[in-house]
Amino acid sequence: MISEVEHLFTRADGTYVFARWGRPIVPVVFGVDDATLSVFKGAIEAVVTLADHKMAETDPELGANLMMFFCRDWSELGEVPHLDQLVPDLQPLIAKLKKADANQYRIFRFDEAGAIRAAFVFLRMDEHLSAMPADTLALGQAVQTILLWSDKAFDDMPPLALIEDKAVLRPEIADVVRAAYDPVMPVAAQDPSHALRVSARITPVS
Hints:
alpha/beta; Collagenase (Catalytic Domain); 4-stranded mixed sheet; two-stranded antiparallel sheet; 8 strands
């Protein structure tokens, strides 16, 4: 179990980097209709509840601290008012995403303690993402922003599983989220020994 947890937070360059939110999460979603907005906020709330963390109506520093942007083409991000103030080097980022033919990208900001202070999620609704049910897409994005996972954490195994055609969070991923938000655990870590502490808080199924 320790090696599995360590894999989730070990980046492609071999460094171990972990962070969780250090403040209540205040989500806002741009570019979707009201029904989809409700689905996304419901998914975020479910994952926040799983973590025993908190949501709030407003962030005193940023207003909203989890911002999700939906677009059909990456160029649309350049037209979002004031986004270039929130995301430095926005135009080079757009060019990078176009070149990679990416359909999603996440940026995290951190406070002095290393905890997550804000997250920006960009989703380009290509054929793959458009074919996904809204609740599946929402739950997947919610779990990928509740912690700072490795850039290769879900390359081999996605965080969601299908049970009777309904997407659910994999139990082992849910266990890691709960353990990582244990009040005695640090908000950020760069030492692989952190994985041992997370594993110790996961109760094996008897």
